[in-house]
Amino acid sequence: MSLVRIHNFSVSLDGFGTGEGQSLESPFGHAGQRLHPWMFATRFGREMLGQEGGGRGADDAFAAQFMPGIGAEIMGANKFGPPGWQDDADWKGWWGPNPPFHTPTYVLTHRPRPSIEMEGGTTFHFLDATPEEALAVAREGAGGLDVRIGGGVSVVRDFLAAGLVDHAHFAVAPIVLGRGERLWDGLEGLESSYDVESVTTASGTTHVTFTRS
Amino acid sequence: MSLVRIHNFSVSLDGFGTGEGQSLESPFGHAGQRLHPWMFATRFGREMLGQEGGGRGADDAFAAQFMPGIGAEIMGANKFGPPGWQDDADWKGWWGPNPPFHTPTYVLTHRPRPSIEMEGGTTFHFLDATPEEALAVAREGAGGLDVRIGGGVSVVRDFLAAGLVDHAHFAVAPIVLGRGERLWDGLEGLESSYDVESVTTASGTTHVTFTRS
């Protein structure tokens, strides 16, 4: 059975998944890199940036779950580009010619455009659709493999609220971000449908997994 | 040097320190006991309830830090009683004749009343004061020992925001509470003045300590 999964989604102690003031220069707004230092210190994170090295400990074990078994990603407009990217006909995402998805990748937007084939197996498709409709399309594209919900915050929240997610991994960074977009709003009692496990690693990050029970 | 400390303050994944709808029957509102099961499963927690047994593992090690070295507590009106307790001349707190404080205990309220001497060393004093003023009085009462900030949520937040806290221990329960009073509001960047450590125990609770750096 094809699962719907979330991986490596960082959130602050106060529940913000991104900061205030997102822009081309600051994809996470005033949060900068403070939500994700754990990931970019891992072998997996370095490799995503085309760099060598990085730790191979517990943070890496979580981070590396991102890829295996995934056949498609669904992401929101806010993950694909900075505010206003829909007005830039040449915008092809943040990630350069070879994005780190390597599967069909479905971008939810009210202003769809033609698909864009990138290097390395990533093809961006654009959908104006509900979570349920998008998932049906993505499952088709995933060819029996799992579908990853890639973010940003509101897309993760929408899929969780709709009960569509089978497994979710959040990395709680030990910071009080103060402002931004709240992950947990509207998800009261989420834990009741899941087995929840937590572990804190040497980086001070607490990895919390929700697995459908 | 006398320190200002916070212990055993539970908070949900989404940052709520108490639920909605606090009342005589439900001190934590709709949260019920869901924020504190870790504590009442420990030897320390059982003892506070006058019961035997309880675990002696990592949760107990954190919980038991509550008492040693403390010479006074400051608490808010919302911890001392349910909404409206100020209209009940006979209200003496939730805890029966022998409250688990065993020191002078300063209750912040805009409607002070005469002090109440309880069994076991607890005396309730009532103060209409700012955090700084209350701390000066409590330090006097503590006789050189540390002062604990006992809650509720807004008092903890006020003392943290005023930079008065030297050590704080929060227990993050793996639940999405959804509604209630938010602990972290107004505390953006709190971590920058503290060494922060986290550890998750077998109960699934993540203990996060802030120690003045």
UniProtKB/TrEMBL annotation, chains A, B:
This is Dihydrofolate reductase family protein. Residues 7-190 form the Bacterial bifunctional deaminase-reductase C-terminal domain. It comes from Nocardioides panacisoli. It holds the Pfam family RibD_C.
